[in-house]
Amino acid sequence: MDFIVDQDFKDEDYTESKMQRVEYEDCSFTNCDFSAANLSHLRFVDCEIINSNLSSVMLGDTSFQNVSFIDCKILGVDFSVCSDFAFSVRFENCQLNHSSFEKQDLSQTLFKNSKLFDVGFFECNLSAAVFENSDLMNARFNQNNLKKADFRTAINFVIDPEDNQLKGAKFSKHSLQGLLEKYQLKIENI
């Protein structure tokens, strides 16, 4: 596989033209439109994707190794089909609505100031993940390792403690209702 190293791509429209089938290393993509593009079998290593649209991209065996997504729109994306090898991502100020992370290793992943409406986390390793100021409205957490995950500033989450491993996870007292919802308890501030 060929390499493209230390390049800055700006205002590219990958909906019209295909990306080169290479490994992108230490590259940045700013104001790019990837919506519905096929990024299968590409490798991104130590890259930043900024203020870009990745909605409905196809990611069959795509490799993300230490990739930061900043101010991106990433709607309806199936990250579960990405390559597992050294998978490492972080999201800041992103919209990830209707995306899926089934069986991904997301340990220590940062989700900062992001919207994760209707996102599916199924059998993921989210140990020590941080959901800083993120909105998890209708996100589904099923059979995950959430040990030491940080939900202290997250909002609108519902997590079943009997279906997920939560040892050492961090929550604020104001968000405890998200852990107790299945019991239909009325929690009141007195």
Protein described:
The protein contains 1 helix and 13 strands. It is elongated. The strands form 3 sheets. The chain has a 7-stranded parallel sheet, with no helix packed on it. With 190 residues, the protein is mostly beta strands. It has one helix at 177-180; strands at residues 3-5, 8-10, 23-25, 28-30, 43-45, 48-50, 63-65, 67-70, 89-92, 110-112, 120-122, 130-132, 140-142. The termini are far apart.
Short description:
The chain is mainly β and 190 residues long. It has one helix at residues 177-180, and strands at 3-5, 8-10, 23-25, 28-30, 43-45, 48-50, 63-65, 67-70, 89-92, 110-112, 120-122, 130-132, 140-142. The mean pLDDT is 95.
What oligomeric state do these chains adopt?
single chain
Tell me the overall shape. Answer: elongated
Rg, rounded, reads 17 Å
| Mean of pLDDT | 95
Strand runs, count: 13
The strands making up the biggest β-sheet line up spatially as: 2-4-6-8-9-10-12
Distance between the termini: 63 Å
Kindly state the percentage of residues in helix: under 10%
Biggest β-sheet: count, sense, barrel? 7 strands, parallel
The secondary-structure element order is: EEEEEEEEEEEEEH
Q: Give the low-confidence spans.
A: none
Structural class from helices and strands?
mainly beta
User: How much of the polypeptide forms β-strand, as a percent range?
Assistant: 15-25%
Tags for this model:
13 strands, 1 helix, 190 residues, 22% strand, 2% helix, mainly beta
Q: What does the secondary structure layout of this molecule look like, with pairings?
A:
Elements: E1 3-5, E2 8-10, E3 23-25, E4 28-30, E5 43-45, E6 48-50, E7 63-65, E8 67-70, E9 89-92, E10 110-112, E11 120-122, E12 130-132, E13 140-142, H1 177-180
